[in-house]
Amino acid sequence: MPGAIQAEGLVKTFGDVKALDGVDLEVPEGTVLGLLGPNGAGKTTTVRCLTTLLRPDSGRAVVAGIDVLKHPDAVRRSIGLSGQFAAVDEYLTGRENLQMVGQLYQMRAKAARARADELLEQFHLADAADRTAKTYSGGMRRRLDLAAALVVSPPVMFMDEPTTGLDPRNRQQLWDVIKDLVSGGTTLLLTTQYLEEADHLAHDIAVVDQGKVIAQGTSDQLKARTGGERVEVVVHEREHIRTAAALLDKYSLRGLGQGDTTVEEHMRKITTPVSGGAKLLAEIIRELDAEGIEIDDIGLRRPTLDDVFLSLTGHVAESAQSDDEEAAK
Amino acid sequence: MSAVTESVRVASHGNAFTRSVRDSLVVAKRNLIRMVRIPEVVIFGLIQPIMFVVLFSYVFGGSLDIGGSTSPQVYREFLMAGIFAQTVTFATAGAGAGIAEDMHKGLIDRFRSLPMARGAVLTGRTLADMVQTALTLLVLAIVALLVGWRTHTSIGEVLGAFGLLLLTGYAFTWIGAVIGLSVRTPEAATSGGLVWLFPVTFVSNAFVDSSNMTPWLRHIADWNPFSATVQACRELFGNPGVSTSDAWPMQHPVWASVIYSVLIIAVFRTLAVRKYRSAAA
Ligand SMILES: Nc1ncnc2c1ncn2[C@@H]1O[C@H](COP(=O)(O)OP(=O)(O)O)[C@@H](O)[C@H]1O
Ligand SMILES: [Mg+2]
């Protein structure tokens, strides 16, 4: 299947700042790519280049099969963009905002209005349709902005940090809307500073830092790359700890710099670094069972994307934290 | 949904010009709705020119020599063309601030990501500003009549003068558009849109008879595009103080005013559209 979004070697410099330093991306049709990175990584600049808002200094991009630099107007007809800040006119009502966007997509006034009503319903804004957007909450504005990006049901969508600054309830609601959307086959490129969000919504994750894609893969692949997967077992009887620890130690990745099997006596818990995932877990359960060891709990503990980020960039995604604090004010 | 997509495709076949007109009207409507919902903007836009009408009429009236007369009534009739013209140029600041705000709020990005006509966002804005200017002129003309301003020509000539004023104001909003697209905040666009207007409107024939100026200032005043509109209005209103200077724009003020406006639109519209297309918010 052809990539609905393809970028090759995008470079963009602002004065001394190299915002993009050769970005390569490929998003297969009907999938979601999460562009994950801290503040200033180049996420917005990438989105702006792909949505015809910014001309890269060099590089090539194809969106929905159309060359972005050669036919920007044709690209605009095939994409929807929800920018980093909700771009709605505060003094227009929700309905007026959507109708205007529809008309600017060259729909007739009547068709634009009908589509606006449909979207207001879909985004739970029907009750607020005739209020000016000024009176909307942050979550409502975000939904209106997203609705505006969907007026013509474009095959390719871009969302730049759609949930930054939203409270958990609104974030969850927006996630549901986005999942709905992609289940309908839309190709989506989504940027986020939230590791959890990328994990939750995206098929593939591209980690960007300082204008470069430093890793790309599924969330599982990225985690596997970082290593650090471990099995934790809590045995029922204290006297089984030794046997169980010896058994688990056979699967340990000791020697790969992943540490040893550890035992926490008082909790009857044994932890060992492994690789092999769920299949391995089943095998361990069978072996423990064969030995007659009763267990209270067993689980595969995977690293979070925070761990992934740390191991890839050598620094934590601090800016995401400070942004949260800002949004909370 | 596929029906919607279908209608989009069909509509987009319209030729570039009708598309441009339609898009501009959609944006103009949006700006007019905003105007109705934020009436303060229109009201504050009226206070300053009304104050000028009243203050200049009563403070300067009787102390300035217009064509050999110091009668307050003569000065009042002389003054109005100047104040009308100054008022229409102040629309520059409104257009600039509005466009800067749209950039700031990310709306320009939204518009630029849509398959709409190139200059429509700016044309829509300047058209809406022209409606506001017309409204302001109407109120101002009534106030002027109340303080004793009169016209002495045919209705056609008077309407022609107001037409020239609107054209001048429209041309100046394109300068505002360039300013709005060049600055980072709406506040900067407001002050940036206003500061240079004071020298332009004062080094002119708007408030004083330019024949009383020192020669080099008078030269500037006579060739000032703004003076051409003022002179044309005085002539078309039949008001006193029409300059007798032999500078071409003073001899042919209507033509000069039209030519200046068309030139300003041609230059600044081109600049504004180019800036809009590469705008980086
Ligand atoms: N218009 C601009 N002018 C100057 N520098 C910019 C501009 N846009 C982005 N940058 C710089 O480029 C880098 C990448 O920015 P951006 O793409 O916005 O990052 P992100 O969206 O990941 O936070 C940052 O260092 C930012 O300061
Ligand atoms: Mg960003």
Automatic annotation (TrEMBL), chain A:
<keyword id="KW-0547">Nucleotide-binding</keyword>
<keyword id="KW-1003">Cell membrane</keyword>
<dbReference type="InterPro" id="IPR027417">
    <property type="entry name" value="P-loop_NTPase"/>
</dbReference>
<dbReference type="InterPro" id="IPR050763">
    <property type="entry name" value="ABC_transporter_ATP-binding"/>
</dbReference>
<dbReference type="Pfam" id="PF13732">
    <property type="entry name" value="DrrA1-3_C"/>
</dbReference>
<dbReference type="InterPro" id="IPR003593">
    <property type="entry name" value="AAA+_ATPase"/>
</dbReference>
<keyword id="KW-1278">Translocase</keyword>
<dbReference type="InterPro" id="IPR005894">
    <property type="entry name" value="DrrA"/>
</dbReference>
<comment type="similarity">
    <text>Belongs to the ABC transporter superfamily. Drug exporter-1 (DrugE1) (TC 3.A.1.105) family.</text>
</comment>
<dbReference type="GO" id="GO:0005524">
    <property type="term" value="F:ATP binding"/>
</dbReference>
<keyword id="KW-0813">Transport</keyword>
<dbReference type="InterPro" id="IPR017871">
    <property type="entry name" value="ABC_transporter-like_CS"/>
</dbReference>
<dbReference type="InterPro" id="IPR025302">
    <property type="entry name" value="DrrA1/2-like_C"/>
</dbReference>
<dbReference type="Pfam" id="PF00005">
    <property type="entry name" value="ABC_tran"/>
</dbReference>
<keyword id="KW-0067">ATP-binding</keyword>
<keyword id="KW-0046">Antibiotic resistance</keyword>
<dbReference type="InterPro" id="IPR003439">
    <property type="entry name" value="ABC_transporter-like_ATP-bd"/>
</dbReference>
<protein>
    <submittedName>
        <fullName>ATP-binding cassette domain-containing protein</fullName>
    </submittedName>
</protein>
<feature type="domain" description="ABC transporter">
    <location>
        <begin position="5"/>
        <end position="235"/>
    </location>
</feature>
<keyword id="KW-0472">Membrane</keyword>
UniProtKB/TrEMBL annotation, chain B:
<comment type="similarity">
    <text>Belongs to the ABC-2 integral membrane protein family.</text>
</comment>
<feature type="transmembrane region" description="Helical">
    <location>
        <begin position="254"/>
        <end position="272"/>
    </location>
</feature>
<dbReference type="InterPro" id="IPR013525">
    <property type="entry name" value="ABC2_TM"/>
</dbReference>
<keyword id="KW-0472">Membrane</keyword>
<feature type="transmembrane region" description="Helical">
    <location>
        <begin position="121"/>
        <end position="147"/>
    </location>
</feature>
<keyword id="KW-0812">Transmembrane</keyword>
<dbReference type="InterPro" id="IPR051328">
    <property type="entry name" value="T7SS_ABC-Transporter"/>
</dbReference>
<feature type="transmembrane region" description="Helical">
    <location>
        <begin position="159"/>
        <end position="181"/>
    </location>
</feature>
<dbReference type="InterPro" id="IPR047817">
    <property type="entry name" value="ABC2_TM_bact-type"/>
</dbReference>
<feature type="transmembrane region" description="Helical">
    <location>
        <begin position="38"/>
        <end position="58"/>
    </location>
</feature>
<feature type="domain" description="ABC transmembrane type-2">
    <location>
        <begin position="40"/>
        <end position="279"/>
    </location>
</feature>
<keyword id="KW-1003">Cell membrane</keyword>
<keyword id="KW-1133">Transmembrane helix</keyword>
<feature type="transmembrane region" description="Helical">
    <location>
        <begin position="188"/>
        <end position="208"/>
    </location>
</feature>
<dbReference type="Pfam" id="PF01061">
    <property type="entry name" value="ABC2_membrane"/>
</dbReference>
<feature type="transmembrane region" description="Helical">
    <location>
        <begin position="78"/>
        <end position="100"/>
    </location>
</feature>
<keyword id="KW-0046">Antibiotic resistance</keyword>
<protein>
    <recommendedName>
        <fullName>Transport permease protein</fullName>
    </recommendedName>
</protein>
<dbReference type="InterPro" id="IPR000412">
    <property type="entry name" value="ABC_2_transport"/>
</dbReference>
<keyword id="KW-0813">Transport</keyword>
